[in-house]
Write a structure and sequence with these properties.
7 helices, five-stranded parallel β-sheet, Rossmann fold, alpha/beta, 5 strands
Length: 228
């Protein structure tokens, strides 16, 4: 195997595509997933299945109770997940405060421990739900912090690069890229509501369905009747 890579693996379509990209680059895969007490926790089962599909060297699952912070429909059952808006540019109630900052911090520590040179995160600034921690400005700022934060950089001069291969792709382009690499999209889940099948109406489902339509491909996961 080549260099080692840590991949933030939620179990969704974008993180699965990042796994496929890192695998195609010949990198040894070290996915990291998070049980942050999200209502759609079945995504962790999807993440386990994807990690097993790629024969990951190690799959780290971190438990962190972001529901204690609250303020998000993804962690607070008292806040309804809204009907989706695929054109959204405002910050919706499904935003989890500082989630990517926290997740990348864990991933950076994991990368330092296993000697990884890369950390992949499937953020996107084209088709996204208005999340501020998906923007290129945030990633650039975190990279500067990462360059100053680790013993790997301070003592060894070894840079851990934050990789965002999906940053400027539409959802359709992401899906086409993953399809080229045989990404196992049938193993993924994207629904924010976390039912046994995808709802087809939340932001995440609508973006996913629109992406498959743009790509001219069939979405292999089941949806509530009549939604796909």
């Amino acid at each position: 195997m080549g260099e080692r890579a840590v991949i933030l693996l939620s179990g969704g379509l974008d993180s699965c595509t990042c796994m496929a990209i890192a695998h195609a680059a010949g990198q040894e895969l070290y996915p990291i997933s998070f049980n942050y007490h999200q209502r759609h926790s079945r995504e962790l089962d999807a993440a386990r299945s994807i990690a097993a599909h790629y024969h990951a060297a190690e799959h780290l699952i971190i438990e962190t109770n972001m529901d204690a912070i609250g303020g998000s429909a993804l962690t607070d059952s008292a806040i309804d997940v809204p009907q989706g808006n695929a054109e959204r540019t405002d910050i919706p109630v499904t935003y989890v405060p500082a989630r990517n900052l926290i997740f990348l911090s864990y991933a950076l520590g994991y990368a330092e421990r296993v000697g990884a040179a890369h950390v992949y995160i499937g953020v996107n600034s084209v088709d996204y739900s208005g999340y501020p921690d998906c923007r290129p400005e945030f990633i650039a700022a975190f990279q500067r912090a990462a360059d100053a934060a680790t013993a790997a950089s301070a003592e060894d001069g070894r840079r851990i690069v934050i990789e965002t291969p999906l940053q400027h792709l539409s959802k359709g382009e992401i899906i086409l890229r993953g399809d080229e690499l045989d990404a196992p999209y049938a193993l993924t889940t994207s629904c924010y509501r976390g039912g046994t099948v995808a709802c087809g109406v939340c932001d995440s489902c609508l973006l996913r369905l629109r992406g498959f339509a743009e790509a001219g491909l069939h979405d292999p996961i089941p949806y509530a009747e009549g939604k796909n």
